Amino acid sequence: MVFNSNFFNSESDEQQSNLLLQYLQQQHPETLEAIAQSATPEIRQIISQNVQGLVGMLGAEDFNVQITTDRENMANLLASAMMTGYFLRRMEQRMEMDKTLGQ
User: Fold this and answer.
1) 3-state DSSP call for residue 49?
2) Beta carbons within 10 angstroms of residue 31's beta carbon
3) Is-contact 39 1, C-beta < 8 A?
4) CB distance 21 to 15 below 8 Å
């Protein structure tokens, strides 16, 4: 999983008031890349399935699928994928902790 730090370079009024976005913009690209690389294969699989479900799945062997969207909808899709990733990582940590405490 690769993180594109240039994603945060556009400025809007909404982004200027978003403290989390400001914090992310201040991070070194290497730090953000390391966090993105820490996603397990299980999390990557679930995010992939989630994005495919949001976009719609048509078999590439039967259809020549092209998707057109605007910037706002694409941003919402990316935000959904990111939130799913963060949620899944927290649940994965909770599962590991439950296993440890259960032993």
Assistant:
1) helix
2) 13
3) yes
4) yes
Closest by Cα among 1, 2, 24 to 10: 24
**Lookup: tokens for 91:** 């649940």
**Domains of the chain, residue spans:** 1-38, 41-103
Report how far residue 53's alpha carbon sits from residue 70's, in angstroms, rounded to the nearest whole number.
18
Residues in the chain: 103
Its sign, for the CA torsion 72, 74, 77, 79, is: negative
Give me the sign of the Cα torsion angle 66, 71, 76, 82.
positive
Residue 3, amino acid: F
Distance CA 47, CA 79 (A): 12
pTM of the model: 0.54
Computed over every residue of the chain, the mean pLDDT equals 77
Q: pLDDT tens digits, residue range 36-73?
A: 777 888 888 888 888 888 777 666 677 777 778 888 88
